[in-house]
Amino acid sequence: MEDYVSESDSDYTSYWRDWFISSRGNEYFCEIDEDYLTDRFNLTGLNTEVQYYQYALDLVTDVFDLDCDDEMRETIEKSARHLYGLVHARYIVTTRGLTKMARPLPFLPSHHLAALANNLQQLDKYKKAEFGKCPRVDCRSHPLLPMGLSDVPNLKAAKLYCARCEDMYNPKSSRHASIDGAYFGTSFHNILFQVYPTLIPPKSVERYIPRVYGFKVHAAATLVRWQSAKRDEMRRRLRKLGVETGFREENGVGEEEEDEEEDEEDVEFEGVEGQAVVPVGN
């Protein structure tokens, strides 16, 4: 709150929500309607979650007039920010809140859509990519949405969700990375796409394909190598613990058979002048 400049305490509280939304690090939040904040039904249960709940609510709704010292005011301001975040998680899953977070444009021909977009005074936060863009190359900078991993406060920080690759990412800014994920909740992004299915992007079907000199690495060979490595790792761990594994080499004849199999594999994949050939596919 120290960055806010005002001439009096009255001015200080009159624009609290405007100050909160415009503060650096709070770009992910939308402004909650005053009617929603003053409806006690929407605040059910929050009085047990927020310290100095009534004072914090008065500050958020611009009716705070308590004469208190700086330490007390700072505590109330912290509670007000926490209260706003908890109410925000409830508000953004309402019809009005979804519209503010991501207002979908109607389905129109491209030239009509462009004209409509030019006439809009305020484009939605989602389509403007105000929450960020997906860092995955094949998603081609698709807009992200904030989300939480828990609805319980002070457990998990906010993440960013990409609807194209259906994965989540950490915010780039440290200010955004410190936002409580409960201020957006675990359901917002899913409800948004159910209410506005036109916002669902085509899924990304492109995948990175590893290649060696232009040839795709054989998937079956890669799987076999991975399975063999995991099997050998498990054998070493079990031997270290003195556990009977039941592998054939422990019966006294398995080791010789494995040596013969390894020799056969060496012969099978032996190339020119004894060089091993890497199995590849088209």
TrEMBL record:
SMART domains attached to this UniProt entry: CK_II_beta (SM01085)
Instruction: List this protein's GO terms for biological process.
Output: regulation of transcription by RNA polymerase III
Domain of life (superkingdom): Eukaryota
InterPro entries for the chain: Casein_kin_II_reg-sub_N, Casein_kinase_II_beta-like, Casein_kinase_II_reg-sub
Composition bias (Acidic residues) maps to: 252-271
In alphabetical order, the GO MF annotations are: kinase activity; protein kinase regulator activity
Q: Can the keyword Transferase be found in this entry's annotation?
A: yes
An example Gene Ontology cellular component term from the record? cytoplasm
Give the region (Disordered) as residue ranges.
247-273
Keywords associated with the record? Kinase, Transferase
User: What does this protein's UniProt record list under function?
Assistant: Regulatory subunit of casein kinase II/CK2. As part of the kinase complex regulates the basal catalytic activity of the alpha subunit a constitutively active serine/threonine-protein kinase that phosphorylates a large number of substrates containing acidic residues C-terminal to the phosphorylated serine or threonine.
Q: How does it assemble?
A: Tetramer of two alpha and two beta subunits.
Q: Which family does it belong to?
A: Belongs to the casein kinase 2 subunit beta family.
Task: Supply the name of the protein.
Answer: Casein kinase II subunit beta
Q: Which organism is it from?
A: Drechmeria coniospora (Nematophagous fungus)
